[in-house]
Amino acid sequence: NTPDRLAQFADYLIAQETLTNVVRHAVASTVSIRVLTQQDATIMEVEDDGIGIDTAMHWRAGALGIVGMRERAEQNGGRLVIEALPDKGTKVSVVFTSSLTTERNGGSEIS
What whole-number distance in Å separates Cα of residue 21 and Cα of residue 40? Predict the structure, then answer.
């Protein structure tokens, strides 16, 4: 497994958890997933049109799914951002840059 493959797997798991949260909490009628690749970065965005997450609740101890998403991103050199507008939805973004991922994982392959 290379660092980029680990970041891709982290993206997948974060998207899975985000979609689970949309189904459980968002009361959304639509959700979109975008994956953008640039020369040195991969950005995944999951956006819904639901009720919006309470920003004060993001990192509370009981929000294990969100805490786990943040930890998974950080362990792989990424950054998790959650944006919310009450009654307009939530946008979850994960950014992995090649330099951060390689640096975070020691610059070599991981077995």
Answer: 29
Cβ-defined contacts of 69-76 (< 8 Å, 24+): 69/13, 69/14, 69/17, 69/18, 69/94, 72/10, 72/13, 72/14, 73/10, 73/14, 75/10, 75/104, 76/3, 76/6, 76/7, 76/10, 76/101, 76/104, 76/105
Per residue in 59-94, pLDDT tens? 565 667 888 999 999 999 999 999 987 779 999 999
pLDDT at 110: 26
